[in-house]
Amino acid sequence: MAQHSAHSPPEKPRLGPNLFWGARIGVRVAIGFVVLSTVGRIVFGAELFTSDGFTYFGVVASEICAGILVGLVVGALRSYLTSAQSAALVGFLGATVVALIGRVALDGFEPWTGADSFAVLIYPLLIGPAAGALIWYRVKDREERKRKKRGAAAE
Asked: Which end of the chain is more exposed for a tag (fewer CB within 10 A), N or C?
């Protein structure tokens, strides 16, 4: 978010651009998973997916949908990313979306069991906060390097 002076009102969060930003990042992450799935299919053959009742295209579609949906969640909450703690919370929410999509991909819309609820809760708790905070620190570091580079160029 941009800095504002005492005489100007704070900048309002821009939901549209933030959603687009999040979806774009989500698609980039999804493409990475699609590449991994494709390499897995090439190395291990189609049996990698069909032995568990999946199809390669079903897995790819799930990866792309998960990437876009998580990106939209992160984009919608982007204006609240002011600290590593807030990024950890957003990471938890994003990982919850992934866990829910994974559960539906594995078992469809069958009735939920206690194990399903446990898995959908434990995955986001273990992965989400750490991923969110690490990504926040990485982005903050990149922005700092860009700021220093612009400052050196202006001198």
From this structure: C
